[in-house]
Amino acid sequence: MPLKFKYWRAMLANLLITLVKSRVKRNWAFSNLVSIILQQLMNYINIYGFLEDPEGSWREIIKENKLKYQNSLFPEIEGAYF
């Protein structure tokens, strides 16, 4: 891949993270924000809510999962294993 595409990707990522940082009221260091976004990239969470109150967001996710699997016989099994 040509080097110019890597620069464009880096600038686009920098712009998107800067936009997220501008909407969040809590003061985050840019490097911490980048690492948190990279860790949470594959999770379905509200990134703004998560960055405002990380602990509260995880509590809500755990509560939703408990409600979703409360009537299941095998709550730890999410799919069929063959």
Short structural summary:
The protein has 82 residues and is mostly helical. The chain contains four helices and no strands.
What does the model show?
The chain is 63% helix and 0% strand. With 82 residues, it is mainly α. The chain has a domain of 52 residues. The mean pLDDT is 82.
Q: Could you outline the blueprint of secondary structure elements for this entry?
A:
Layout: H1 3-23, H2 30-39, H3 47-52, H4 54-68
Radius of gyration: 18 Å
**SS summary, helix count:** 4
Q: Would you tell me the overall average pLDDT?
A: 82
- Total beta strands: 0
SSE sequence, one letter per element:
HHHH
DSSP helix fraction: 55-70%
Largest sheet: none
Structural class determined from secondary elements: mainly alpha
Strand content: under 5%
**Poorly predicted runs:** none
User: Kindly, what is the distance between the CA atoms of the first and last residues, rounded to a whole number of angstroms?
Assistant: 39 Å
Which quaternary structure do these chains form?
Answer: single chain
Shape: elongated
